[in-house]
Design a protein that fits this description.
The protein is α/β, with parallel strands linked by helices and 315 residues long. Helices cover 41% and strands 20% of the residues. Strands 3, 4, 5, 6, 9, 10 and 11 form a seven-stranded mixed beta sheet that branches.
Length: 315
């Protein structure tokens, strides 16, 4: 049988592909630069092809090197899954769990979910990463994340998806805005030029545009926010109105501002929160357990008594 590449060699190649710098790749692999360089040369000799182009100024992968690195990521992810599957069989929600979440969910939902999760599973070591959806899914497929909390609709490809709940959008404006006097807001009457959105790359932006229906092509603004706090400041400064998910309002994002929230007339636009993981992941049982915990906390937090989020009574 022909000799096969080792996971160590493949890990060296992937680290170099990600950084295109031998020193940085060696540091990421906790080896010396000469050890990493020798490991990649061994891999090239084993495969009989050149994987890396080297000169004094630049490092780049050859075309076959890029292909090998791509396949190596999948093999490394599979090896991690194999190891963690064996460990996870002993006890659910134990050991290291690499968890990703998008910034329009993480600070508003996780604070009420993580404390009971830690109390119920003290052996769990949770490593959180907040990032945009596309980058989280890249890390998930590469095996550097175990699961991610995102919002749908989004193209999740062949990933396992566990939907949690719908998160309705609300109309948000200054308290003195004439539009805020209405009991409910008809989304079709919104003027695209008045609506402020997050910048490109945030799925919340895409969800808000999609929610506004057939005029979605007109929803382009010269002024866009880089984050929800910035968006709130822009609206409070009188630059326009916006749409915000209900979980952000329940978390108190408008507290201390001169803004008010109004519901949209049915059917209200919404997004769907979901947990995603690789279909081969040994953490699928943990995905379900965390989903159940999220829903339990939501049931508890959904008790009456949040006047700002009650739909105004009909006259």
């Amino acid at each position: 049988m022909a000799a096969l590449p080792s996971l160590r060699q493949l890990g060296y190649l992937v680290a170099l592909a990600d950084r295109l710098n031998f020193r940085a790749a060696a540091e990421a692999q906790f080896v010396t630069q000469s050890t990493l360089s020798a490991g990649i040369k061994e891999l090239e000799t084993l495969l009989g092809v050149q994987l890396v182009e080297r000169d004094k100024r630049r490092v780049r992968l050859t075309a076959v090197g890029e292909e090998v690195a791509t396949r190596a990521r999948g093999l490394l992810a599979g090896a991690r899954d194999l190891t963690e599957s064996a460990r996870a069989a002993a006890a659910p929600l134990s050991g290291a769990l690499r968890f990703g979440a998008i910034p329009t969910i993480a600070p508003f939902l996780l604070p009420e979910v993580l404390p009971p999760l830690r109390r119920a599973h003290p052996a769990l070591k949770l490593y959180l990463r907040e990032d945009l959806t596309g980058r989280l899914l890249e890390r998930l497929r590469a095996g550097t994340l175990d699961m991610a909390l995102i919002a749908l609709p989004y193209d999740t490809g062949d990933l396992h998806v566990r939907e949690l709940f719908k998160d309705e959008f609300w109309f948000v404006a200054r308290e003195d805005d004439p539009a805020a006097r209405a009991r409910e807001i008809a989304i079709r009457r919104l003027n695209p030029g008045d609506v402020l959105l997050l910048e490109e790359g945030h799925c919340l932006r895409d969800h808000a545009i999609a929610a506004c229906g057939p005029r979605r092509g007109a929803w382009a603004s010269a002024v866009e926010a880089t984050s929800l706090p910035t968006l709130i400041q822009m609206v409070e400064g009188g630059m326009g109105v916006t749409l915000l998910p209900e979980i952000t309002l329940k978390a108190g994002i408008l507290k201390g501002t001169r803004l008010t929230a109004r519901p949209f007339a049915p059917p209200a636009p919404s997004r769907t929160l979901a947990l995603v993981a690789r279909r081969t992941s040994p953490r699928l049982r943990d995905v379900e357990l965390i989903a159940e915990l999220v829903m339990e906390q939501r049931r508890r937090a959904g008790r009456p008594g949040i006047p700002a989020l009650r739909r105004p009574a009909k006259p």
